[in-house]
Each structure stands twice: as structure tokens, then as C-alpha cells.
Fold this sequence. Notes:
The protein is built from 4 helices and no strands. By secondary structure, the protein is mainly α.
Amino acid sequence: MTPRRSVREQLAEVTIWSIGWKEEKELAASQKAQQEQLDRLTKKPKEGPAKDCRSLTKGDFDKAARSEKLSKELEEGNLSEDQKALKEK
């Protein structure tokens, strides 16, 4: 074996190792991004404009319809005294 061949072999090994390390690094970044996305998707929704949609996600369409109806009545100011009292609590 000549010294040049040895250097070439070593360079080839380092190149292969470098490529493998880069692929592992990219794979780890991809897995981390997927885990973060999964965490965002499975996180419970906070209070906000979509909080009324929780009933829909659970399949409770009647509750969602009642909630929508009460929201519209609240915006229009058409609530009865009982409903206003419940709202203030």
C-alpha cells in the first residue's frame, strides 16, 4: 500500500462519515420539528375565539348550536333577565 492510497482511503472514510453525520443531523432536526408539531396539535385549546368549537370537536352538535345561538343573542342584546344574570356569574 502506498502512502497516497492510504491518504485517499482516509479521505474517503472521512467523507462518508461526514455525509452520514449530516444525514443524522437532518433526521434529528426533522424528528424534533415533527414532535413540536404533534405537541401543538395535541395541546388543549386556550380561551379564545375558537373555544366554542370544543363541543364540535367532541361531537356535541346540540351544545354547539345552543352556544352559537346564545352568542348571537348576546351580541344583539336580546338576552332575558335570567340569561343576563347567568352571564354575569
